[in-house]
Amino acid sequence: MIWVPLLGLAYSKILAPVFLLINITLDLSFIGKFFLINHLIHVIEYLWEAAFVFYSQTSTQAEAWESKRLQLILEGKSSSVAPGMRPSATLPKLTPQERKPVDTCARYLLNNAKSLKYDDYLKAGFPMATGVIEGACRHLIKDRQHGYHWG
User: What is the pLDDT of residues 40-52, one digit of tens each?
Assistant: First the structure.
């Protein structure tokens, strides 16, 4: 998950969480001013696992199945993707073990719907994966270890 400050704060959208995470002093004033964004890579992993229940890992059909649902999720429709997945696993009469990745993915999408509003996050320019934040942390921590100090 990624901590992102709410709009209107004076902090940089990306670097504020980094500074809060590496700050030595404990500042609890940020509580209630942040919300969670589920890492997009986790969503994609769940979708692929579900796709492989219906199609082989090398099929273009699995890719099309995953891409269609990912597009809907990016449009902010994760709650409508989940209910459509379960009947797909029921029709071919899959065993509970065979359909488990589909149920797990659907449950993940429903349970995390509040932090899967990627359409809003894209409009606001928020990061949906941690690459930028992890890279900034790596450089900031490395600078601290080598004796660089800030203001």
Answer: 888 999 999 999 9
